[in-house]
Amino acid sequence: MDDDEDADDEPTGLHTVCHACSGAGxxxxxxxAIIAGQPRTIDNGRPCTWCEGRGYRHGLVPPV
Length: 64
Ligand SMILES: [Zn+2]
What we know:
Elements: E1 15-17, E2 26-27, E3 30-35, E4 38-43, E5 46-47, E6 56-58
Antiparallel strand pairs: 1-6, 2-5, 3-4
């Protein structure tokens, strides 16, 4: 089941799971919007700006 854990297209070498998105590659991006006269919260998310959606960063990146 978990034998292909490293079978992704990750480059070899050190990388660090992105601290901003915890490896998800997406960040929540809630917005308030008025739809049909009702205030609604929309959260489409957006690609993580830290890792550009990859979920990890090259090299060792210590938590800030
Ligand atoms: Zn990220």
